[in-house]
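User: Sequence in, structure out. Go.
Assistant: Echoing your sequence, followed by the structure tokens.
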Amino acid sequence: MKQIRNFSIVAHIDHGKSTLADRFIQRAGLIEQREFRDQMLDNLDIERERGITIKSNTVTMQYTAKDGVDYELNLIDTPGHVDFTYEVSRALAACEGVVLLVDAGQGVEAQTLAHLYAALEHDLAIVPVINKIDLPGMDLDRIREQIDSELGLDSDDVVLCSGKTGQGVDELLEAIVTRIPGPTGAEDEPLSCLVFDAHYDPFRGTVVAFRVKNGRLKPGDVIRFMANKSTYKVEEVGRFKIRRVPCKELVAGEVGYLIAGIKTVSDVAIGDTVTLEARPCAALLPGFKEVKPVVFSSVYPISSDDYPGLVDALAKYKLNDASLIYQKDSSVALGQGFRCGFLGLLHLEIVQERLEREFDQSIIMTMPSVQYRYTLQDGKQVVVDNPAYYPDPGLIEKSEEPYIRTSIMIPERYMGAVMTLCLERRGENSTFTYPAPGRIEIKFDMPLAEVIFDFYDRLKSVTQGYGSFDYELIGYRESSLCKVDILVNGEPVDALSCMVHRDRSRQRALQICERLEEEIPRQQFKIAIQGAIGGQIIARTTVSAFRKDVTAKCYGGDITRKRKLLEKQKKGKARMKMVGQVEIPQSAFVAVLKTDGD
């Protein structure tokens, strides 16, 4: 155990975690050069396309230190984006130390601090590293000063390296084996393993990734998952070396996987403890903090026949992404589906794309919303995240919405544009700090509902991609809220209803009506699309009708002949409107979710 090191690489988004992991993999010779590709641990197509890490990935490497001792290094690569902080917390639970990367150009940013605090919470050893030292024009002294003042770490301990060129990688590996302690635990104690990830393999069943805290595990052992008491016989254990490599046994301190023919996906819970059936451990290992979703949306299959497939796909997806929370839901317009909770808007997008790509699900998602809190006149409090459960407006005493404190790091020249954007979104209590020359950090208190829709996209646009954005929930504040219903041909469409601030209600209703006007196909009669609060219409657009030229056969003659034909046509259209049903195409629901920039 003295020769095992379990560590994680953490940093703000785009500070070079995956590139540095590539250099480690090449240095360990885990893969031949002809099979190598950049971002080796980003194995989802969507990760490679977007250039971000979404899933924590594990790899075991061998390293011989300068003193000739062989070490087994278990590296867990983590995402940097704020929406995937839960992935990071799970990775840290399996480690003894972290490599904290700071970009030589950008310096210390919002997520750098967040990950540092998470590592300190887990009581981990921290190796600070300045990455990208090959960048022209970087100011190392300024970055060292930031590490000293903002992170409170000793700048003399900083390791300099470049994930791109490989410069300084050997010094960093040496720092990892000397500064990060080996794991604690005992091989002769009863087996206890912490499950920190899992995924579904169609040929082998569920593959469980875990860290052995005590004891040893080998094929043939009968194990028990302590959360739901299910038992299985282990078929294979092994280590992650880019591919799964089976081994004879895993002992205390090691990280690996097990396959035990687990067909029932619900039997595996992330954060559960695995032990031996014959000699169980005394208590569950501390798992992970309960995840708190902040954005809610409903997911429906495009065809109602696909509902059983969606049920199956969500259960398998949940294995690989424990931060997704869902429960059954139904809608008059869209049928049976699920109400899902996400950690942010990027998380929502990723879930949607992965369900479509990896599980071949054709799905539609309703408009994202947050959890509003209503106090009724009888003193009862209700929490509502779905417009369908909006309480009777006559009974509401007080309405509150969740607020967040945003931290936006930008170059100084974009300050005016960002201030305008935040004030448009009802931002208040702004404060400014200058963490470094030319860079400014703006903090605002804003309603979460204003941020989840398209705020991040707009911020990236106005700052030309230089703005970084982080937020924390600060509680609920009183607000004037109302429910906007969308009526198509006089019929309310429940999937398009939304809860908004009263000042923004007309703007939002008009935006939805205009989108629907573009998407709903024309009929033989006029279609009125209206936005309403209760019985009051606040926005309207009209899809004009197809018109046949009924007067084409009238050439010359008295005008009354034409008029008679037009009156007859008008009566027919009025009669058709009374019985006509408007089919809303699926593309219309998607179009409403898109922002003007899209």
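User: And one key feature?
Assistant: The first helix runs from residue 17 to 28.
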